[in-house]
């Protein structure tokens, strides 16, 4: 009998929950939680009655602390401290059955308490620098990162009210300990807005939930749980969505990201949980790996993979064994040992071949190639996985990694960003990220005048990216497999011709009479060292053939707009003319008065060379595209001719052979 019933209160759901607690206690301990002879005695002893934990009453029985705590909560003297509904009790029992961890309060973070935060600053976020050839999409945020660390499974609870004009609130978790400034680049962010909830991983949107709308000026109870690699989001106790990530983020700090003050946010209550008993076999090697004890963790992962063949735990252990070797390789300083460990990691990932976890083989290998700096092989691995497993249940993991790499590389690695952009547009065009990517590229990709405008934006961008990346086989495959319209087919053939793959192209396209084909014919003749046509660059043709008087007549008839626009080929051509006619000082005065950009336009490469920003030995030349190398050498060759610089002419000829 529940204590309140002894004093004449009515029976309620809470008294029934007390009775269920008695039954659970009996199941666990094989005896009653108390000894009561009569109601009279109970009234007298109740204030002093103490219920012992079932594991103390029956120490010989293996009683789960989780079940013990459920029983004790049901048996609370104060009804308010019991489960408040049978549904709550059932949910907690289900959590036990599913292996969901028990939660222990670990801390509380207040947005108003500066002492809770190690880092609290306004930060400007810029995206897609490598894709836009400049800084784009800058937004200011207030970023706060906690002093306290919360390792392992975590639960975050708070009360949130969005007001008029609020752009939402972002809750960060798994923020790295050693590099606070990379908090957004290597963490999760759950962004809650009025009309959606978005989950970002490493600043890449991996989930966009629009099926729930937050009413303005109404308080909601928000709960976020991270159990192993599974993230769940709850509103007022009801789960709205879940997300499973295969590559964990190791950070242990929590943060907030806001753009305005049009919200009320309660304290963040943070709980840490025990390991999930359903995957407890991986907890031991995970602990070794966390302590960088790579040999022990590798041995344990291999034991588990052999013990659970054909099961998810076994496949997960195989993947983590490869990750262990990869982590060990990254910590190794001796080159030969490092390379040997990379090779072992590739072999370890290959054990996933022809298993239900086969896509993880290619994901793991891509991570090895990334660590080695072989980004072409990294991209090939991921593209091969997309081609081989178009409907595999693990495909979302591949997509997440591809999008993450696209964003990561778009900050500063243009070649890699183009590789992943090409992959997304070719194989994942249905994604919202692909549409956003197309918008950015359509606006910022450097135009190539020999490609005719196309009605099919996606195919047009794919052709341009394949050209920049010097991937003629992509263009050939498009011609073979895709039913391209005449314009797209023409552009693909032009791309093949200018990349030197005439045997794969239809050369008859050069016979057409359009402005784009005119450009293509000129570039083709220039690349082969043939006689240049008059158009579209008569000044280039006359300077190249040393027809100085004709060149002078053409140059002096050019408009100021033609000569001064660094985005036009006429800019560098007029500089070459000045070098011939008025001396190199005048040429330098014209050519070096340009702005500095993160990534140089192909038409202004000579100027950046003369300013010392790029050279033919290292740096830019190692990261530039094949077409950019060609354009720089062509511009340098003409400039050397006009300045009669024999040393520069020899230098250009030697590099032409290399390219």
Number of domains: 4
Nearest-integer average pLDDT: 88
Output the number of helix runs.
Answer: 29
Give the termini separation.
89 Å
Low confidence ranges: none
**Any idea what the shape is?**
elongated
Number of strands: 14
Helical fraction? 40-55%
**Sheet with most strands:** 7 strands, antiparallel
Structural class: alpha+beta
Radius of gyration: 33 Å
Which range does the strand content fall in? 15-25%
Task: Map the helices and strands.
Layout: H1 3-6, H2 13-29, H3 39-45, H4 54-57, H5 65-74, H6 86-98, E1 103-109, E2 117-127, H7 129-132, E3 136-146, E4 153-162, E5 169-175, E6 188-192, E7 197-201, E8 204-209, E9 219-227, E10 230-235, E11 238-244, E12 253-258, E13 263-265, E14 268-273, H8 283-290, H9 294-307, H10 312-331, H11 335-350, H12 358-372, H13 375-388, H14 395-410, H15 414-427, H16 432-444, H17 457-468, H18 472-481, H19 486-498, H20 515-528, H21 538-544, H22 548-556, H23 560-564, H24 569-581, H25 584-591, H26 605-610, H27 620-623, H28 626-643, H29 646-658
Antiparallel strand pairs: 1-14, 2-3, 3-12, 4-9, 4-13, 4-14, 5-6, 5-12, 6-7, 7-8, 9-10, 10-11
Helix pairs in contact: 2-5, 5-6, 8-9, 9-10, 10-11, 10-12, 11-12, 12-13, 13-15, 14-15, 15-17, 17-19, 18-19, 21-22, 24-25, 24-28, 28-29
């Amino acid at each position: 009998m529940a204590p309140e019933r002894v004093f004449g209160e009515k029976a309620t759901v809470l008294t029934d929950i007390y009775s269920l607690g008695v039954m659970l206690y009996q199941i666990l301990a094989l005896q009653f939680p108390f000894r009561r002879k009569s109601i009279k005695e109970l009234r007298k002893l109740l204030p002093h009655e103490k219920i012992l934990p079932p594991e103390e009453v029956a120490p010989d029985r293996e009683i789960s602390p989780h079940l013990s705590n459920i029983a004790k909560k049901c048996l609370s003297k104060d009804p308010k401290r019991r489960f408040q509904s049978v549904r709550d009790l059932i949910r907690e029992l289900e959590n036990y059955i599913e292996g969901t961890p028990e939660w222990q309060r670990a801390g509380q973070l207040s947005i108003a308490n500066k002492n809770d935060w190690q880092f609290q600053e306004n930060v400007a976020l810029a995206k897609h620098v490598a894709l836009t050839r400049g800084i784009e999409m800058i937004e200011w945020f207030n970023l706060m990162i906690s002093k306290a660390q919360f390792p392992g499974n975590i639960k975050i609870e708070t009360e949130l009210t969005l007001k008029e004009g609020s752009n939402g609130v972002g809750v960060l978790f798994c923020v790295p300990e050693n590099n606070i400034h990379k908090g957004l680049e290597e963490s999760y962010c759950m962004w809650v807005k009025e009309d959606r909830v978005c989950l970002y991983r490493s600043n890449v949107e991996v989930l966009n939930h629009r099926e729930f709308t937050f009413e303005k000026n109404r308080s909601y109870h928000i709960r976020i749980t991270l159990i192993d690699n599974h993230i769940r989001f709850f509103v007022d106790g009801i789960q709205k969505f879940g997300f499973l990530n295969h590559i964990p983020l190791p950070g242990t700090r929590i943060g907030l990201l806001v753009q305005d003050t049009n919200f009320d946010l309660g304290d963040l209550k943070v709980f840490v949980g025990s390991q999930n008993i359903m995957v407890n076999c991986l907890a031991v090697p995970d602990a070794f790996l966390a302590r960088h004890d790579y040999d022990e963790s590798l041995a344990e992962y291999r034991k588990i993979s052999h013990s659970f063949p054909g099961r998810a735990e076994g496949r997960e252990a195989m993947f983590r064994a490869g990750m262990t070797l990869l982590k060990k390789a990254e910590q190794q300083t001796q080159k030969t040992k490092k390379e040997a460990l990379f090779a072992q990691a590739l072999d370890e990932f290959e054990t996933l071949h022809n298993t239900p976890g086969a896509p993880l083989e290619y994901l793991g290998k891509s991570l090895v190639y990334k660590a080695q700096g072989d980004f072409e092989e990294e991209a090939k691995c991921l593209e091969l996985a997309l081609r081989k497993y178009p409907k595999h249940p693990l495909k979302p993991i591949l997509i997440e990694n591809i999008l993450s790499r696209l964003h990561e590389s778009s900050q500063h690695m243009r070649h890699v960003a183009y590789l992943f952009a090409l992959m997304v547009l070719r194989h994942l065009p249905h994604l919202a990220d692909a549409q956003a990517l197309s918008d950015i590229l359509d606006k910022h990709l450097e135009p190539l005048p020999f490609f005719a405008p196309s009605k099919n934006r996606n195919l047009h961008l794919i052709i341009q990216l394949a050209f920049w990346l010097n991937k003629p086989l992509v263009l050939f495959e498009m011609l073979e497999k895709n039913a391209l319209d005449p314009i797209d087919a023409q552009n693909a053939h032009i791309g093949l011709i200018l990349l030197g793959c005439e045997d794969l192209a239809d050369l008859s396209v050069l016979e057409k009479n359009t402005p784009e084909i005119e450009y293509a014919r000129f570039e083709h003749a220039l690349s082969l060292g043939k006689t240049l046509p008059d158009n579209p660059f008569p000044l280039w043709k006359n300077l190249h053939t040393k027809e100085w008087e004709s060149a002078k007549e053409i140059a002096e008839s050019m408009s100021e707009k033609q000569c001064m626009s660094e985005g036009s080929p006429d800019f560098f051509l007029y500089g070459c003319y000045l070098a011939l006619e008025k001396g190199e000082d005048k040429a330098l005065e014209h050519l070096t008065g340009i702005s500095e950009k993160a990534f140089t336009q192909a038409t202004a490469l000579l100027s950046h060379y003369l300013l010392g920003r790029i050279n033919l030995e290292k740096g830019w030349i190692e990261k530039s595209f094949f077409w950019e190398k060609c354009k720089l050498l062509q511009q340098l060759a003409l400039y050397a001719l006009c300045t009669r610089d024999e040393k520069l002419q020899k230098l250009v000829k030697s590099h032409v052979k290399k390219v």
